[in-house]
Amino acid sequence: MLPAVAHWPAGSGGLRDTIRQEIVARQLDEQISGRYPVGQRLRILDAGMGQGTQALRLARAGHTVTGLEADPDLLKAARDSLATEPAGIRERVRLIEGDGRETGVHFLPGSFDVVLCHGVLMYADEPDALLAGLARMLAPGGLLSLVVRNADALAMRPGLAGDWSGALTGFDSDVYTDDHGVKVRADRLDALTATLAGIAAPLHAWYGVRVFTDGVPAEAGLPAAEELERLLAAEDRAGRTEPYRRIAALLHLCGVRG
């Protein structure tokens, strides 16, 4: 497998973001390849796609991707990135200004084989309604991919940094401050498992993301390629291994539409 620096654009962020994107990509590809024949072109919705990192990666793999993003700056970044792609890839991507609450306005139920909702749920005022709307967009047997902050591990980052007051607060909290200084929600595996069952997209598999590297500074750059591959191998294994995955900073949950 090629080092992550060969997969992600330079603007995708530092070490923490690269680890998140690469590990989620590996996990998502594992779920897709386990559900669909090799070479099948899937209809994919990326709700809250950010700058389009995963959307463009999936389009390069041959899938038809619709990206939904409410932030005009992020949408512009995605469009700028898309403009640099070959014509064949550009033709497979549709970018729409909007958010996950508006799926019913733009699409018919059952329009997609895979729906991504990565790093979005923590900002949602009504997360259950958002997830129910996304699940309705899935065809029968379709895959819903969620990436959320792990509320059961909120004490880890401050604790490992020696911030004992922050660690004690994190044990009983489901709120944290993101890298932009905004207070947002975190989610618990058990609660999301129940929610997915209730919207007819029960949990099929789950992973941890960023077990070892959540505490590195946000501005930290990438190590040399060989060291990065070893780091990714360790994160990849930890994200699918008990008990490590339970203390990951992020959870990646995959539900399947019944």
TrEMBL record:
SUPFAM superfamilies: S-adenosyl-L-methionine-dependent methyltransferases. GO terms for biological process: methylation. Residues 45-145 form the Methyltransferase type domain. One of its GO terms (molecular function) is methyltransferase activity. Keywords: Methyltransferase, S-adenosyl-L-methionine, Transferase. Gene3D superfamilies: Vaccinia Virus protein VP39. PANTHER family: METHYLTRANSFERASE (PTHR43464), UBIQUINONE BIOSYNTHESIS O-METHYLTRANSFERASE, MITOCHONDRIAL (PTHR43464:SF19). This is Methyltransferase domain-containing protein.
